Structure formats: C-alpha cells, structure tokens
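Predict structure. Chain length: 418.
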Amino acid sequence: MPTIVARLLLCMGFFAHSLAVARADEAALHQHMDLFGNYELSPGQVLTGGPWEDGQVLFMEATNIADGGVFTRADADSFESVFPPGKSFRVVRDAAGDVTALDWQAGAGSTVRAQRVHPQAREDVSIESGDVTLSGSLFLPVGPGPHPCIVLVHGSGDSDRYMGPWVTFFLQSGVGVFTYDKRGVGLSTGDWRDGSYAALADDAVAAVEYLASRDDVDAGRIGIHGSSEGGWVAPLAATRSSHVSFLIVRVGPGQPVAETVLYEMRWDLREKNLTGEELEQVIGLSRSIFDAASRGDAWESLHAIVDPVRDTAWYRKAYGSGGPRGGGERMWNWHVANVHVDPAASVRQLDIPVLWFLAEQDENVDTAASEPLLRAAFEAAPTTDHELRVLPGANHAFFVMRDGQPSYTLGYWDAMAE
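Prediction complete.
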C-alpha cells in the first residue's frame, strides 16, 4: 500500500494508533472549517470532507475513498490533490462569502459542480470534565429542533475533534454531532497519556450531559459512537449516564485490554520473524508484565520480571537493546489503570439499543475471541435490542481493495443508515 494511502487511513482515526497532530492555536485548529460539509457530485454520490492534518483538506465518498482525495491549497480558493494525483477543485462562494459548491475536476475529465447539500450549523464550545476542560464542536442540521445527537468517542492516540467522515455522515442522516479534542490535544487541557479509560469515559459522559442540557437537542435521543479504543470507553460511558439512549461501536474488542494488546503483539512479532517457541516466550513475558500491572505492582517490579531473560536470543530479537521498560513509569501507570478494563462487563449492564461491528480480518482486535464473548454479554444484558455484525473480509479500517483502490466494506455505513 502506498505510504500516502497508509497515512490517509491512519490519520482518519481508523487504525489503533492515530497520527493526528495537536494544534497549537485556535486559528490553525479551524483552518478550512468553512469547507466542512457534503457536496453532491451526482445523484447518490456525495463527497464528504473538511480539514485534515498539516493544513490539508480531505474529501471522500462513503463507498470508495478514491473518489475523493487529500488536497493542499494552490491559491486562495483552489486546491490540488496530494493523493491521488491529478485532481483539483475550486471553491464556489455566494455574495456573503459562504461556500455553496465545489467545481470538481478529476484528471483530464470535465469539471463538475458539486453543490453543497445537508446544510449544518457549527458551534464551538468548551465543557468541564472534572479538572479538565474539553474543547469541541457541536454540529446540528439546519432546521427546527430539537435534534437527535451523537457523541463521537476517539480511538487511541492524540486524536482531535476531526473524526473523518462520521460528522458529515450523521448530519446528512439528520443527526447532530458533538466531537471534541481528546484531553491534552488541540484546545483541550489535561493529558490523555495520564488518563484512564474511566477518565475518558467521564469525558464522553460530560459531552452527553452537556447535550442533554440544550433546548435544541432531544435529550431522549442522545447516543455514543466509539471506534477501536472507543470500544472500551464508549460502553463504559453508556453505563454512567441515563441520557445515553443508544450505542454504536466499530471494531471494539470483546476482550480486556491486556488480551487485545497481546493479540496485536503477535502480529507485530510475526513481522519480526518470531514464530513458534520464541514468539510464545515474548508473549509469556508480556503476560507476566500485564499480570503485575493488574495487581497494581510498582514500576520497579519490572526488574524482577525482565532482567532474568534480557540476554536471551528471543528477547534481543524482539526488543533489541530496549524492552518493556522503555515506556517509563508513565506508561506503566497507564497499564496499571487500564489493562484490566473489560468491555463485556460494561455490555452486561446495558439496557439501551446497541449496534456493534467487528471485522473478520482485524489485525488489532481478535474477532474470533471477541465475538462469542460479546454475544454472551448481550445475552446476559438487560437490553433485548442489540445486534452484533462481523463484516466479512474487512480489516480494522473496514477497508477492502477493489480494482486496486481502497474502498469501504459493505455493511457498516448502510447498516447505520437503516
């Protein structure tokens, strides 16, 4: 896969580790926000887009990202594609300076005027979550309310409020969206690296309670959508607020954090050509470390676990001169706070409609192990309105390759639209 494609998928928050960049000031944060929205190229073909990283703009179509691309500004209102090459568009504005359309050109083809559709209103707000101030944006469909609304919960890493196509997807479905900079990212205070999943769940609850306080939001129709790491955070948040009326989870694991990390490690170790007994030695070492973290042992306890095996061939092959202690005490404290978190325990408490998606060929989540655990948790839960879908052939990003181009697998966007 070309590097720019990998960056595209990663930075849209689809993979486990986000590459989103914390922005230093509000002006940079809101660059190109006037482009954020939906543009109809042809009946049934809608481009969704807005600001991306490094001052670029991302546009995509929900079934095939190759219909869009990543763009950089050529002049005041003209943009040229970085990936894929050969595309460009010019912004069309009305007399008031508001964006009404894009004059879209793909390669040598003719220019198509893509009219802006599904108008929206945006309000930038700050909310309190304990001693942290979260900065976010509320997007509402234009028209009389109160509107149903959904809170978008991040995947892992330093993710900001720009959550790929989800904002515009829900808006075109008539659902308002609240999305926020993760603590310590963008304009939010605090630091996600010091926070537990419980604290991140409290952040999502703070967003839900804020929405419930507004007259233009229907307090009886507020949901949460969580992706990847959000599969631990979003269900936990849903158990903590009576105002959460539905939950959607995309590639959220059914296993505790420790088991999911060990599954990811197996993929990484195979890429380092560790197999058989060597691989199992590394996994056994990591399991011992996670067990110590679950007990709340001190960081210094790692010496007794790691030092006896530091000179073995399999250790050097896996870690080189570094090792599990390389993350320092801060990373250890994160493990102590989180490795025991079990999403199935949250699911067993839910009494709201739940739609949960897994990917058949997920490299980050053990779908074969997660599916039965989640089904058992749903059977034990008070809710009877739940659906668990495993998308065939899909990876963690919900992408498949069609005709050499990355495209969404079927069964996710269309299922949510139902």
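Summary: The chain has 13 helices and 18 strands.
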